[in-house]
Amino acid sequence: MAAPLLGKTFFVTGATDGIGAHTAQRLAAQGATVLVHGRNPGRVEQAVAAVERAGSGSGGAPPRGFVADLASLAQVRRLAEEVAASSPSVDVLINNAGVFEQQLRKSEDGFELTWAVNVAAPFLLTACLLEAVRERVVVVSSISAASSIDWGNLQQERGFSAHNAYSLSKLAEQLFTFELADRLRAAGSPVTCNCLDPGTVNTKMLSAGWGSIGIPVKEANYELKAATDPALAGTSGEYFVGGRIARPPSIARDKAEQQRLWRLLEEQTGAKWSV
């Protein structure tokens, strides 16, 4: 029996640890060609080896590794260029990478680090790679997404809170997801865009913010489902919790807020979109 994902290419950001690493390995086991991203060269090398072991015997092409610090817009652009040069088409882009910063730190571009990695980076990366994407864009958000947005304090300069910065970034991801889905639909593109809560999974990032809770990483399959489930083909502009369509915070569906964030991120990142 042929591996179900044979011939498909998936690009997973933040694939050296946690849910991203687990997803990359599960994809390879089903025959997919997996493009593995991470920030540390040594850890990327280890992750690629683990993905290759997981895919042994599946018939898929060997995985390939890419190194970039998503806190740097210049490195995000370079990452997109390297991925496009390595693989002219990407069936599914999984924006999995994320951080939970305990202290206020700024990126080299002047953004609060949570915002830089969780919001600006996937926005720019998706813009740069969109013409190569064939099927799906998946954005890993969170059930912890904020229910409101303070436009005057996006960079957390008035009283930093790690949880507030993280929750804000997850709301921004939802706003970006829904606006992109609408743009793709209006352009007649077959590409879908959805976001999801990956579940309460005992990762290092979750432990940093909430303590050691949740299911083991090896049981975290909602991200994989959003990226591969044939039943979701054609489903776009949705938010999934527990593998099912759920209702996001009401502000995430506000078209004016979606467009306001989009314009702001275009200014911040210099992203040029094909839709």
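the 2nd protein, sequnce then structure:
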Amino acid sequence: MAQKGSPQLMYGLNRSFILQCIREHGTISRSRISRLTGISMPTVTGIVDRLVSEDIVKETGKGESTGGRRPTLVCYNLDYGRVIGVDLGSEKVKIAVADLGGHIITLGEKSIWSWDDRSKLEKVIEGIEEVLREIPNYDPLRSALGVGVPGVVDYKSGSVSFAPLFPSWDNYPLREILETELKIPAYLDNDVYAAAWGEYSFGAAKEAKSSLFILVSRGIGSGLITDGKIYRGATGAAGEIGYTLVDRSNLHMNFGEKGCLESLCSTSAMASKAKEAVKRGESPLLKQLCNDDISALTPEIVCQAAIQNDPVASAIVEESREYLAVAIANAVSIVNPEMIVLGGDLAGLPDVEELFVEPLKALIKSHVPHFPTITLSSLTTNAVIYGAIVFALDLIQERLVGTAI
């Protein structure tokens, strides 16, 4: 049995290496594929020819001659299929459709607000189904789904073991449900891991050997990429920086209560502090900017007021970035990353470089043994979406290899 399977196994491995090479290098010749992969020229030619016949790869013209005939160039057929990336939130879901190069074709948001987790999931599925119906010539056999979930996810089984924003999801078989309802393969992972992977694949951390992505939104989390892999920890919960304590008095509080990092400096914490200040009559400017509607106060408005030197808003921003600086300095001392990438809703705030990024660098620099590059996410608020897209692209490639063996 082993001998009979060996040629099939070798073909599958070679096909996988060749597909990955074409995917990474774009337009490329068969001879260069052979040099880069170490696979013999006859084997490369045979596999590439088959990929062309299957419409997975297409020939794009002639390359430059190095002395003989001009080589025929091939590239990944980006329109062979489509992938769907999903950024799942507690009140809204972002859904993107991308080609096989990861280029986003459509991106939209859908409200999923409900008191009931099951109703939220039904709205998510409805939103994805609406998107699938709009894809021209949609073929489920050429599609895959990637999802970033705000919680602890077993990426192998696709079950969610802990999700504070979806309290009923205790060992919840989310991937199984999505695959059953949507009839396409799905890959699920923690949303911050997805963001870190998106930044590593498409964004600011693309050239970094180790990078720590810190997501600051309604919650706070982090994802560490080192040597091209996501660091997950013993139970898949590594990076929950939002639960770190910044004062010993917090030891007497329960897990996740006020006093943990995200209760002090998340974007929702900024908005909550601003609302309390306006209720106390402390900031006429904040009251004016929200048109006397305290419920409409957002972190964006807080930053707008801070730029206008409003003392209350400036104090809220200062306190938030100082708590964040403490957390980042501690993380840098522990994991020694080459790069820190700041993302999430924070990345979309007005004047974020002036209000957060540059002051954070100054605060942290003198408190760490090795100062990393600190930068804003180049994917801004879409890092999770891009990571989910990469998850789906990897699923597509597995299918393209597996169906041919």
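The chain has three domains: 2-76, 82-196+384-402, 204-378. The first strand starts at residue 28 and ends at 29.
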